[in-house]
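Anyone able to model this chain together with zinc ion?
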Amino acid sequence: MGARALAALPLLVLLAVPSFAQRLPTTVRPDHYDLTFAVDLARARFEGTETIHVQVDEPTTRVVLHAVEIEFHEATIGTGAARQKARVSLDQADQTATLTVPRTLARGPTEIRITYTGILNDALRGFYLSRAGGRRYAVTQLESTDARRAFPCFDEPAFKATFAVTLVVDRGDTAISNGTLLSDTPGPGAARHTLKFATSPKMSSYLVAMAVGDFQCVEGAADAVPIRVCATPDKKDLGYIALEAAQQILKFYNGYYAVKYPFGKLDVVAVPDFAAGAMENTAAIFFRETDLLADSKTASLSTRKNIASILAHEIAHQWFGDLVTMKWWDDLWLNEGFATWMANRPLAAWKPEWNVAVDEGLENQTALNLDSMKSTRPIRSIVKTPAQIEETFDAIAYEKGAAVLRMIESYVGAETFRKGVNVYLQKHAYGNATSEDFWTAIAATSGKPVDRIMPTFLNQPGFPLVEVSLACTGGRTRISLTQKRFFLDPALMKGAGSGGRWQVPLCVKTPNQAMATCHAMTDATDTLWIDGAPLLGSGQAGCAPWAFINAGAQGYFRTSYQPELIRALAPNVASALTAPERLSLAGDAWALVLAGRHTVADYMILASGFGKEPTSGVLSQITKRLGFIRDYLTTSATRPRYEAFTRTLLGPLFDDLGLAASIGDTDERRALRASLIGALGTTGNDPDVIASARATLDRALGGGEPLDPTAARAIVRVAAEHGDTALYEALSAAAERATSPEERYRYLYALADFKDPALVQRGLEYSLSADLRSQDAPKYLAGFLANPAGTRRAWTFVKQHWTELQPKIAISFGGVRIVEALGSFCDARSRDDVKTFFAANKLGSASQKVDQTIERINNCIDLREKQTPILARWLAGR
Ligand SMILES: [Zn+2]
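re: yes, here you go
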């Protein structure tokens, strides 16, 4: 599934049979499904006719299938004279249907035929109902375990089969599925027509897709593969940005992979109600509208990037996931880590100015942040129930999986890695694979011990902290390294010496070498020697004054340098380190503060060197942490000084850029400006920036000069944070009348930025309204919870309305989003309250997330207690 929108992501109460997911017996396997669905939008149901061609491997009288909310009419097994009626018994807890026949089924091929009725539900999973423009649509979202809601099936990824879908729909409606449309014939009856789709390739049941409604498409092609981007009729013209990106991306992948795009056509469909960001159904990718559709004339850089990036992720899945699928969900990273890693390749080639390497650095930080916790999990962990499967769609499967792949790619070399990837894909095409299959392929292709390195990152939780010190011996530089597991919790960090050992590929950069020296650290300690070559630029030989051991920023670890080394490196950061390396250095420095090894004063000294940071992705990470420090580590006494520090630090760069965009501004200049407006208007509390933001916004909302799209979100946030009722109402109205999803959500989500308690309350009340779609509610509410001015009130509201909000929170990834946002609490009483609440109101697919949130709050409490006085002293000393 598509990351971003998930990044945070799941509960069941609604559909709610707690399930214990029994694995199916392997005595009977499917080869092919013939599926016919007669869809009745008005009554929100469908009639299903199904024939499954199966192989019986061991003689038996019973066949177990998955099925949920399916009403069976008739089931038979066998062909011709041997066909016999089956008795059906349902197990709600296991989500299975057992078909039992009187006479034993012989080994060999046979057929299961079932007629049944299913429901088009409102829960955005299975075959479900979506609504827009006063009409209804029927669409599917079957990953991970919801194909069983659409048709009885062998709903596990290793039971691959081919699927032939037929849809009977209303006249005037169309339908999209995995295969190309083979025929469209009138009937049955005057009001219906029947669409038959080509048989799919061999694939897993979770990849079946159907969309029914009045969708319209814009059309293109890449390498003779027809590509369509489809939406509801009013939004059809918002598909051109996506179409262009999809063409570029497919072309790139056809050049990268030895196997060309194998599925004949590619449809990409924007669905009005969609729980995840997007879903990689084979040859029929489904999206939430805001992640696919945008106005070609006004779309911001971040919207263009987001569309291209999620498309690149889903199209990468056509190979990693659809063509080759993980054998079981414990290897989900083989799908999601791969798609996340791969997505950046076509973007970097197509749009070098997008600085994709910095985005990769940000992905690494996301993974490292989660993976620093005691409550993290290994990439490969045991999963059994649908709730556990859903919960593994996290930053460990996506961002950590991708980070490990980048590290290995960098270690063996990009071309060798590509060869290994192609060997793996060719060997397992139309089949299933495991982590072992992958590392075996890369180890064989590269001749390097990838099969020893990867298990250390896949099978154990967390990652190493590499401690670095330098010494000068006989004109040579000795670099001493030690590794231990990194923990956010200072107490665990102190005792962590014995826990975990990794084989760590790393690359060292010093001012003595023209090229970085790469190396795999295999033991707890290690020593590297750098010859006393001339210092770059000085012409003099000598020992290296500093070393940076994550050269290229491809390593999945954090680093702690001895203090002298940091002092020697600090003045050279801008000239000696690349943007991703600076991001890695600053990320490590902040993590060491959280873990109690450095002080916030150490971090402030480092951050002070980033005032003129020219890369927006790096600057925005720095300003985000400055905002956190203001929110949590300042007091009413120290805040004015802290705000003044922020203004002094960032003011000069902002003065260079100015508030208004010029026509010739590059995307990067615009993005830098947006970061600075956000930081100065909120963290810096800069009255000029605040006043200009409000004036600019009022003008735009009043029909005057429109906002620069790239800076718009920052301008709206700053204005809303300081905004009044008039602005609240203007934003509400603007969200209502917006024609593009970007504009709508820019204004809608800004309602969570107000500080005025009455407006916070008003915004919260809106979440109960039918106007706020379920797909948007978790993110909307999370915005209020994450706003320090609204956290307490929002949490009280969510608890009070918990039952009422269930249909909205219980969608996939809804609960996780809410729980994650509660990590903005920083006091013991709230922590205990959160803990008590979720002990009584269990969220099946967010149980790890609850532990992570509690740990996050504990860390914040500890940090605030220790670092608040240190920050006060640092500010006073300036
Ligand atoms: Zn995905």
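The two ends are 49 Å apart (CA to CA).
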